[in-house]
Amino acid sequence: MPKRTKFLSRNPEKPSPRDRFWAVLANTPRLVQLVWQAAPRLLLLQLGITLSNALIPVAQLYISKLIVDQVVLELSQPGVDWTVLGRLVGLGLGITLAQVGLNQAETYTTQVLNDRFTLYANQILLKQAIRLDLAHYELPEFYDTLNRAQQSGSAYPVRVFETLIDLAGQSITFAGLLSLLVAFNPLLLLLLLLTSMPALWVGIRFSGVRFWLKRRQTESGRLAEYLQQVLTTQEFVKEVRLFNLGDYLLRQWQSIRLQFNREMAEVLARNAWLRFGVGLIANSGFYAAYAWVIVRTVQGAISLGDLTMYSGAFQQAQGLIQGILFQIALIYEFNLYVSQYFEFLNLQPQVVSPSDPIAFPNPMRRGLELRDVSFRYPGASEPTLHRINLTVKPGESIALVGMNGAGKTTLLKLLTRFYDVESGEITIDGIPLTAFDLEDLRRNVGVVFQDFSRYHLSVQDNIGFGDLRHRDDLDQIERAAQNAGATGVIADLERGYETILGKTFSDSAELSGGQWQKLGLARAFMTPAQVLILDEPTAALDAIAEYDLFQRFRQLTQDKMTFLVSHRFSTVRMADRIVVLEHGQIAELGSHAELMEMGGKYAQMFRLQASSYAGVAE
Ligand SMILES: Nc1ncnc2c1ncn2[C@@H]1O[C@H](COP(=O)(O)OP(=O)(O)OP(=O)(O)O)[C@@H](O)[C@H]1O
Predict the structure, then answer these.
(1) Which of 329, 450, 475, 521 shows a CA-CA span of 20 to 30 A to 402?
(2) Half-sphere exposure (CA, 13 Å, Cβ side) for 614?
(3) Which UniProt keywords apply (predicted)?
(4) What's the 404 CA to ligand 1 centre distance in angstroms?
(5) Reported ipTM
(6) Ligand 1 contact via 562 beta carbon (within 6 Å)
């Protein structure tokens, strides 16, 4: 039985802090690779800039020391030699200018790299979204995973990378300072390091708490987004006013957002106190070191220049140690988010093309066979279809009838492999559907579903999407429109096939439900499909349009296998054979005449409907 877990894992339980730390950092190589793939040259450039920048603070400190010592020397002797001082100041200025330039270059590369990577990461995310099964899109957990991946994927991988580069830069600066300070007193360095460690602990702890809080909020966050959408999109605008839902929904939305703010404020307050505590510890460490430098200067053990250099170096070292530890905490936090991006990329579709596909038979000879086919939706306890057996020859037209929820649409979804059967087999000319390439299969099985798509794009796109290879072939598009009875609709539009439909964009035209349906049908007529499926194609059509359509449909599809779902028996009766589905099983099967003679469910439903429509004859 296909369980939900086959498609998605539920939210992983929160692992222990130690496992979490290492597991999270284990993502780093994969994301470095990802960022590298997005923009290798830019990355190298940024690395070069950051590393060069890293050496500057040490050089600046050393020059200040030389200047102070030189000033002291000049003061102790008669006459001043300005050349050496002038050169030192000039050198200091040169280095500072280089730093200004490098900083600007870094700002530029960071921004460009960010943009480049965001594009790349979203592209990968969308590619993955296209690849996944329909079944994925029917599980709430999937939307949580997608939502988190969308929020995490675009920014965080590149931020991890930048933080890694910064970390490398800061480590280099730190190593330079270390070489200055170790000569003075290595123990003081150790003191600085130890007094800064609590900050790392607080940083990592806070990152984790914030991350798990946001993760827990994903589903409610999606609910808030959904409510926002209900309040702001055309789809709902009429009912929101009609039923006066506005204030009620707004309050629901507000309470979710307020709750989020409250939860985050609590975390932030706790964090602020903790950071205050660790800040005290770290600063005490620095002041202890500073005091010792002063003592040694007063004792005459080091020069005034040394005092400037060491006190500056200790201050910078302390800042750097904290910076480095903070970067480590950041890398940890960003990695947590990146893991959500990878969680989405790791999802695997179950419905895939075989590695060695067989070409779809053209023309079909024996036709379609369903043998003992059963199917259950992911997560459902009962099967929706149960042991269906049916053989359909090429050129035959089949109508599917049954109560709402009997399984008609589900059966048709199996024919296009939106889902794979749970047991049994579906074959075309004896070849299982799973042996065909998915694209080849779907080109040969054309469908117009009840909930067909309405693209807010041009009419040409709305029809041409039926077969992208011919999207620019206006003759073919016009033919498809003609077959679907849509030419009248298009002729009434000011810009014909170029008219943008829907209400999303300017200069567009909105169609009625039936007019949209005609375009949906035209899309199906674009394909060279040998099997054509219409799932309630006439629900939104008026009686004349429906009559027209079926006259044409019969002519156009004489050599095709057709399936038709309809609740209108005047349409159903035109089919060669009628399948009556009941609770996912075939209850009756035969031509209209046979089923009427049988006097079973079909006959009962037909009479019921006929009696309510004057003029519908048996
Ligand atoms: N995506 C889905 N996930 C889980 N269950 C589903 C899904 N789609 C349909 N079902 C369930 O499967 C059953 C059959 O649905 P299906 O859409 O095939 O019925 P139908 O015969 O086409 O109905 P209608 O005449 O209302 O269109 C229903 O009980 C429905 O609740």
Answers:
(1) 521
(2) 0
(3) ATP-binding, Cell membrane, Membrane, Nucleotide-binding, Transmembrane, Transmembrane helix, Transport
(4) 8
(5) 0.96
(6) no
